[in-house]
Design goal:
Layout lengths: L4 E3 L7 E4 L5 E7 L4 H18 L5 E10 L1 H15 L9 E8 L3 H14 L3 E6 L2
Parallel strand pairs: 3-4, 4-5, 5-6
Antiparallel strand pairs: 1-2, 2-3
């Protein structure tokens, strides 16, 4: 059993929930001055998670409102790390990218990540 990683959101950093219950989550605004401080622990957590149980099923949800370029780089790296453990014969990892219905930039970023990495990621509008 992995020790959960939970980071409370601030005005500049997202909520991050990685653990045994519910979907894994990165949500909110991500405009930290030093994205290494926010995202290196996330990458380390995922690497340890996959070392411990490389075939475990989970749902990963991205519910981001805004990302700066440094955050975008790390989200891409998180998705690359997850992709290494996707097995084409089954859907044991479910990826969901949520965006506000009128937020074309977040929608396009999710589409870009999905297409660039060839991921089975759902792009889901949130209404209202």
């Amino acid at each position: 059993m992995m020790k959960p990683l939970k980071i409370e959101p601030t005005e500049r950093t997202p909520e991050i929930v990685l653990g045994d219950e519910g979907p894994f989550l990165i949500a909110g605004r991500s405009i930290p001055e030093n994205p290494d401080e926010v995202y290196l622990p996330v990458l380390d957590w995922f690497k340890a998670f996959f070392r411990r149980d490389p075939h475990r099923s989970f749902v990963m949800e991205f519910r981001l409102e805004y990302l700066n370029s440094g955050s975008t780089k790390y989200v891409l790296e998180i998705l690359r790390t997850i992709k290494k453990h996707l097995r084409p014969d089954e859907r044991h990892i479910i990826l969901r990218w949520y965006f506000e219905e009128e937020d074309e930039s977040i929608e396009e970023l999710g589409l870009h990540f999905r297409d660039y990495l060839h991921l089975p990621m759902e792009i889901i509008p949130v209404y209202g």
